[in-house]
Specification:
Pfam families: Carb_kinase, YjeF_N. Its EC number is 4.2.1.136, 5.1.99.6. This protein is of the alpha/beta class. Helices cover 41% and strands 15% of the residues. The strands form 3 sheets. It has a 9-stranded mixed beta sheet, sandwiched between helices. It has a 7-stranded parallel beta sheet with strand order 4-3-2-5-6-7-8, with helices on both faces. It has a two-stranded antiparallel sheet with strand order 1-9. The model has no long low-confidence stretch (mean pLDDT 95). Bound molecules: ligand NPW, adenosine-5'-diphosphate and potassium ion (K).
Amino acid sequence: MLIQAYSVERIRQAEAAAQARTGDGVLMRRAATALAQVVVARLTARLGSRPGSRLPGRSVVLLVGTGDNGGDALIAGALLRGRGLAVTAVLTDPARAHADGLARLRRAWGRVVTADDPRVAGLLAGADVVIDGLVGLAARPPLREPAASLVRLAVDSPALTVAVDLPSGLHPDTGVVSGPVFRADVTVTFGALKPGLLLADEWCGTVVSDDLGMGVGTAPGTSVRADLLALTDGAAAALLPDPGRADDKYTGGLVGVAAGSTDYPGAPVLSVGGAVCLRPGMVRYAGAQAKAVVARWPEVVAAESVERAGRVQAWVVGPGMGTDETAAATLRTVLEQDVPVLVDADGLTLLAGHRDWLDRRRAAGQVTVLTPHDREFTRVFGDLDLTDRLDAVRRAAATSGAVVLLKGHRTLVAAPDGTTWVNLTGTPWLASAGSGDVLSGVIGSLLASGLPADRAAALGAHLHGRAGERAERAGRAGAHALWEFLRG
Ligand SMILES: NC(=O)C1=CN([C@@H]2O[C@H](COP(=O)(O)OP(=O)(O)OC[C@H]3O[C@@H](n4cnc5c(N)ncnc54)[C@H](OP(=O)(O)O)[C@@H]3O)[C@@H](O)[C@H]2O)[C@@H](O)CC1
Ligand SMILES: Nc1ncnc2c1ncn2[C@@H]1O[C@H](COP(=O)(O)OP(=O)(O)O)[C@@H](O)[C@H]1O
Ligand SMILES: [K+]
């Protein structure tokens, strides 16, 4: 199964349709029930079976804003009172708090204070659970006062922190953060995952998604395609090509790597290694480092130039090839081939001055994958602002006609048709010289096996990230360590 996230707009559409079926208040009651259940389960697990670790009497603080997000928190608070917990709601604006929710909490003998109450800091410091019902789908960061101050106070609380729908201060669609953000141990989200929960997962803790019977993405007449996709290990394994009985080395995927120069002998070895470790039928190499490449990877068929390399089913071009005239000529020759081409590193720097080469491929319906890090992205797509990375990568793919993989902590992949992926694997230890070269080879192999380009890029990033995690656990440093863990 793929992980699927939906934009606020899509969730609102499903919410409206569901509300018309169920009537007022039903979805909110379901949301509050789901929230209360998660709080009870998590708090029980946290307390363990030590003496005196019973739930009744444990203290819950609700941070309550002026919208339905606060309504969810208030009704969940009333349900938690029913389990014997001590519940206090801190209201940002008593006159605008969700009326029905507030009435229910009061009837259940919950306590209510306002955000300017001097006891609030002490309440948060002594709480067992803090529930963030400040803002949800309707708000955009930064948080206004007094919500911002409440979030700052909550940061210091040792309590179990639970976000309602999403951590307040996080943009639900973009994951962009400005100002204080509620840091959650658990986020209980409704309808479906939102893109921001995947893009900025460091704020969300464990995400529990409850669709409340809304059927987001399945409503008749609406697009079933999610707005943001991510791979699980299971989905990645299902995509990985396996050779069949009838396959030979020519049908098992032939990938070519055009990389390296006299100045950069290492990059082609790393990139070819990434390709070899994915076990395609054959890897061809074209460039100035044929000897070094074959010394490390004897199975590779090497030539001095792309023209002499023979046919392949996908090319990787760019790592360590420099930006001189020879390199430009190589890039041009590769881009003229009617097979999928991945452009990385120096290839991207060159491409920045030759956007017409890309336009030609687009006009001919040829598949191109670009794999920039931020600086390369800015070189190629200078006019696109990277503050909202999701928006930037989508625009880049739409304007260039290429699949664009934007590297980073949460690598993004966008296709020209709008399909967008976020990679959830990896570790900051991957931020070391040469690890991007390995990635280019990995994706090249997957392209040669015939996977659609956006899937090949997303799968490559997923495997590369897992290899990085495993290398980190094994205490291994350096991009070449990734090979070993890609093979596993
Ligand atoms: N979708 C679903 O299926 C279901 C949705 N449900 C729940 O409804 C939630 C959405 O509720 P919602 O629409 O009432 O908006 P919500 O986000 O609570 O807050 C808006 C309030 O915040 C305020 N505000 C705005 N910006 C702000 C800022 N920067 N800093 C501070 N405050 C700010 C704004 O104030 P105003 O600008 O009007 O003064 C307004 O009053 C959703 O997240 C989920 O929890 C479930 O109950 C059932 C199923
Ligand atoms: N903070 C980070 N957390 C996780 N992965 C990262 C982080 N920074 C970079 N990476 C990953 O490390 C790799 C670096 O690639 P790149 O910058 O092209 O390196 P090089 O050009 O030296 O090979 C990319 O796969 C990128 O997604
Ligand atoms: K919230």
